[in-house]
DNA sequence: GCTCCCACAGACAGGTCTGTCTAGTGTTGG
DNA sequence: CCAACACTAGACAGACCTGTCTGTGGGAGC
């Protein structure tokens, strides 16, 4: 929409000096929205944490809803990069599928983890909220990743296998957050994924 | 806690005339909190929908947080009753376990369903919130139900089986809410539960 | 009858919410 | 030098938030 045609020199100059208002806002939103929740954290706390004027937020994003969308899109992009980068270390499609649980599970093991940001942000979303569209895009991508790997692994019904793996993926995200034994839950989820793979590739 | 020792005459008299303020508040909270979310719905909307004075709410529950706890405890009690009543129709422990998915899945198939109220209400809960304790009690009960049935079914490791079943239970609750194919997700979850049972009872 | 108690209606306090607006500052490119 | 631009600080509007308080009315028990 705006600023797309700027000279590269200017952008790098600004960036080396200090992160732009947009970047600081996104960093603050990412931290606060994830830690405390998109409904609990108000605009004032975000701009205070970012060290940014309120007008800059509304010039850049237009509304809180759009800031939430940008926050979730950032989470989506980071997860996509983390997984695509991490999965190259695994050789076979089967190992890559288990690697997804390994990589994402490690995140949820962090004591700072508050579970899946898409599940949380959409838990109380109103029907037309931007968070719903962002969460949908994320989930379509995850489902596609499972399905692609299931196909490469030679599953007879890759879509069905992906659906089952996605259920386990959601289940451990919730259970690791809510109950007191994230490591045990993750191990149980991994075992289930392996069992599903064995059954689907037999 | 209170009112348990009241004369039956008085209670029935009140009940036939009109539900008490407490009952109307709980009914309104149940509807609004579940449909729109405990953070989105304010006290004013609850009391307006219940047709109750604000002072009655604070005399009865003391705070919004305690009203949320009462709302979740009501959900817990209703689910417990629904399952214990519904499961008598199933003969074997194995069928009862699958019956849990049948009974609860049918609820999530309702277009009005917004998924698991405990997952949603705790998604943005602050550390000491009453919703966390209520959700914990509910989840301990669910886990215990799975474990008891797994033990009766003769599973070698009933706790491990219960943990896996609980992951599937959470997974379908989330996936049925967020993606567009609740019936397919439920069928996939049922199939996974059956597979887990076959593996654990072999 | 009279008193107690539950529930009513609603004003009020003090704060927070999102979003708008004005005015000023500092840097950069021409 | 000057115009453009991104940004800052902060007042402001109008709504909503939780929670408290005052005063009223009606039914039940003594």
Brief sketch in words of this structure:
2 copies of one chain form a homodimer. The first copy, chain A, is built from 10 helices and no strands. Chain A is an all-alpha fold and 202 residues long.
Task: Outline the structure in words.
Chains A, B: Keywords: DNA-binding, Transcription, Transcription regulation. Chains A, B: Residues 42-61 bind DNA. The structure is a homodimer of 202-residue chains. Chain A folds into 2 domains: 1-62, Homeodomain-like (Arc Repressor Mutant, subunit A, Orthogonal Bundle), CATH 1.10.10.60; 68-200, Tetracycline Repressor, domain 2. Chain A contains 10 helices and no strands. The first copy, chain A, has helices at residues 8-17, 21-36, 43-50, 54-60, 64-87, 93-109, 117-121, 130-152, 158-178, 182-200. The first copy, chain A, is elongated, with a radius of gyration of 19 Å. Chain A starts with 7 loop residues before the first helix and ends with a helix. The A-B interface holds A 36-40, 115, 118-124, 126, 135-136, 139, 143, 160, 163-164, 166-175, 178-179, 184-185, 188-189, 191-192, 195-196, 199 and B 36-40, 115, 118-124, 126, 135-136, 139, 143, 160, 163-164, 166-175, 178-179, 184-185, 188-189, 191-192, 195-196, 199. Chain A binds a DNA duplex (30 and 30 nucleotides) through helix 1 and helix 4.
Q: Which regions of chain A contain 5 or more consecutive residues with pLDDT less than 50?
A: 1-16
User: Pairing-aware structural class of the strands and helices of chain A?
Assistant: mainly alpha
| CATH architecture classification of the largest domain in chain A | Orthogonal Bundle
Report the count of strand segments of chain A.
Answer: 0
Helical coverage of chain A, percent range: over 70%
- Strand portion of chain A: under 5%
Pattern of helices and strands of chain A = HHHHHHHHHH
Average pLDDT reading of chain A:
90
- The global form of chain A is elongated
CATH evolutionary superfamily of the largest domain in chain A: Tetracycline Repressor, domain 2
Q: Tally the helices of chain A: what do you get?
A: 10
Terminus-to-terminus distance of chain A: 51 Å
Radius of gyration of chain A: 19 Å
